[in-house]
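User: Show me an example of a complex going from sequences to structure tokens.

Assistant: Sure. Here are the input components:
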Amino acid sequence: MTATDKPKAPGLLDGKLSPTRPLRASGNLFAFALDVLRALPKRPFQLREFLQQAWFVASVTIIPTALVAIPFGAVIALQLGSLTRQLGAQSFSGAASVLAVVREASPIVTALLIAGAGGSAICADLGSRKIRDEIDAMEVLGISPIQRLVVPRVLAAMLVSTLLNGLVSVVGVAGGYFFNVVLQGGTPGAYLASFSALAQIEDFWASEFKALVFGLIAGIVASYKGLNAGGGPKGVGDAVNQSVVITFLLLFAVNLVITAIYFQLVPPKGQ
Amino acid sequence: MGVAVEVSGLTKSFGSQNIWSDVTLTLPPGEISVLLGPSGTGKSVFLKSLVGLLKPEKGSIVISDTDIVRTSEHQLYEIRKLFGVLFQDGALFGSMTLYDNIAFPLREHTKKSESEIRSIVLEKMDMVGLQGAEGKLPGEISGGMRKRAGLARALVLDPEIILFDEPDSGLDPVRVAYLNQLIVDLNAQIDATFLIVTHDIGTARTVPDNLGLLFRRNLVMFGPREQLLTSQEPVVRQFLNGRREGPIGMSEEKDVAQVEAEMAALEARGGDSHNGVGPKGASGGDAVPPQLTPSEGLPERKAERRRQERVARMLHEFDPETQAAIRQSLPEDLLAKAESGAFEPTRAGGRHWAAEPDAHGTEGQTAGSTATAVLPRRGGEE
């Protein structure tokens, strides 16, 4: 054995605290996202897997989303109800409530559930396949796991996310109506009439666009973390945990950026 | 005939941890090779490098003129169709039945009709003895069945190279014996190149044509089975005899003084042949047991004659013990030819050793590896 073959003593930090480490991690995630985008148009499209995954993601998210959306809409209605009364603008509580639910609450609730319920399920599924060598086996069989598994999952997350966003908007507004009219003594006519006073159709499209992007991010982060899980069952658990945390952080940051751009592009009504 | 796999100067590290370095070996086409090594010496990493799942930093792996260390992702997916890999636990897709698992590569890669697929799948399932288990899920069957199902899936695309990652792990000795026979039978039927990574000395002694041993981040030795089975190299002897006395320690290497003391004690007891039987099929001494032959009714292994010619050609390079063992395995005509010197001597580098630093720079580079990989047939006709 020559001198160069000697095992190197592990360094004190051994690259773990290197300043470039977070950069490398985010670079890898970004490269993975590009790989996924590149694999999107590749034939054959995995329709079956896509439908299965869409159904799967929908089935784990619909009920929790509806259950979260009702109190969320109610809280907004309660807050706005008392605020508008204090300001003497009770007739606008419906308008403000719609605005808040459609513009912000709905994509955020969708994002939380897509990441928390859908993303974690995708990550756990891919992670457990990874540690059972199924992913390696698939690659060895000459099949790209990105095209075969990740692309259908990301598309499914995007589809379900936009649909859920619609659901949250409806449930949230209905919840707001109930609390405002039934519990706070608002008038139904004023609530409904003021709907279109402040809100506009662009708000809804922007909200759907946000949901689409959130679905994309949640799908990609969950798949990335799942496919890079290692170290046995604990590794899968860690991957799921990290995927949810990373997705949350990214979603809120992206949400801020999209909202800022939206207000530049679409001026609020009445200006 | 299978494809040769030429590995040269391969080095792999994870971060600052070196797994192995400068691994050079050639898997001769159609032959069965076994790679041994203590746990944690990177045997599985080596297998994964061969199929391009991991990228070594240095060196090359050449398979039918493509260096898979440096080839494009697209090319890699094409090359991988030459491979069949049996992973440790079978790596079956948990959500599919055995039938769907085995049909999966056919459905993804070929345009065969469902009835053609059915006949191929049933044939392969029959080959590995899994008739009647088509509808079972991987979670419902035993480890041995999972392995055989994984093997059937690896076989459906008619691979040229088949890699086995510890085919014996988790199986009882009888099932291992059946699996070993199955491996030899398969080799006789499809004449593909086989590489088996294992700890099982019984398998290593009886199944392969070639043996290799990884230890201390290096390929200690790789060559015809007789070479390792008769080797006096302390690491090889310790491993093949499955004893504690020797350079391989429980976790890392031992210091030299301790090894010497242990070896002296072993000699005092009468050496390996009096040391009794070790675990995992390890037996005392350095006998070369007869190799497994295909079951009755199957054709002869085509690799057998190819290998005999190849080994006869490099006979003069080995130690006297190895030469004696090889002579016993050779048929009359080849033996006579080898003794009379009718064979051209193999060029340096043709020997299946780990690259020796001094030989490497001088004559080892002269494309000698082809001499062992693809042996010209002309020697036999003259």
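The lines above are the inputs; the final block is the predicted structure for all two components together. The mean pLDDT of chain A is 85.
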